[in-house]
Amino acid sequence: MKTINQEVSTEIVEKKSKFICHLFYVENTQEAEQKIEEVRKKYYDARHHCFAYRIIGEKQIIERASDDGEPSGTAGAPMLQLLSKNELVNVVAVVTRYFGGILLGTGGLVRAYSQATTEGIQRADWSSLELGEVIKLPVSYQNLAYLQYYCKKNGISIVETNFDEEPYIILEITMYEKGKFLYEMEEKQFSIQKMEILQEKYIQKKIQENA
Questions:
Q1: Binning pLDDT at 50, 70 and 90, where does residue 211 land?
Q2: Which of 10, 72, 129, 182 has the fewest CB atoms found within 10 Å of its own CB?
Q3: How much is the pTM?
Q4: C-alpha Rg value of the chain to the nearest Å
Q5: How far, in Å, are 3, 57, 142 from residue 210 at the CA level?
């Protein structure tokens, strides 16, 4: 599965109507709805704010789309189809339309909303989404520097480093990385006596070029 790294904004004009596309990375439906509302408030004077999103749920991908007053099937559905076609998840697309006074017809609307969304997708930096964990490891001062070096070298995110009486480090690590990490720590005779799993989550891994 794939997602985007950061917010993307693009704009097209079709027969004097302006279409502004925003793509956001989100982790749940509440965040998606919040982003949609933020766009509504930002462009409060626009006629339509059509949207589509795909979110990883507990058992399935949650999908939702809205034409927001446009003729049925001319906006939200083609936007959602583009997210699905590109295997994008945890992404919400919002296309705001400022009406230019010329009717586009159903075919013209589908093309315009699709083009606006496509340009946003093409401009985005993509990541893969891989199942992983947030783990907490006790760490000695003498081993901390090596751990930090290892994580930087292998693209493992350090969430927190704590230097209290019992120092520890918190990592975001994919399941593949975790197996490799534990094996290499054993090879280095780096003893991990207690590892606490704080959370299971999907972790972003940057893709250098769009697929």
A1: very low
A2: 72
A3: 0.80
A4: 22
A5: 11, 24, 41
Q: Which two tokens stand for residue 131?
A: 């199942």
Q: What is the pLDDT of residues 114-163, one digit of tens each?
A: 999 999 999 999 999 899 999 998 888 778 888 889 999 998 999 999 88
Exposure string for 173-207, b = 16+ CB within 10 A, e = fewer:
bbeebbeebeeebeeeebeeeeeeeeeeebbbbee
Tokens 């446009």 sit at which residue?
A: 70
Reported as a single tens digit per residue, the pLDDT across 65-101 is 999 999 999 999 999 999 999 999 999 999 999 999 9
> Tokens 């999103």 sit at which residue?
53
The amino acid at 57: G
Treating both helix axes as pointing N-terminal to C-terminal, what angle do 76-85 and 105-123 enclose, rounded to 10 degrees? 40
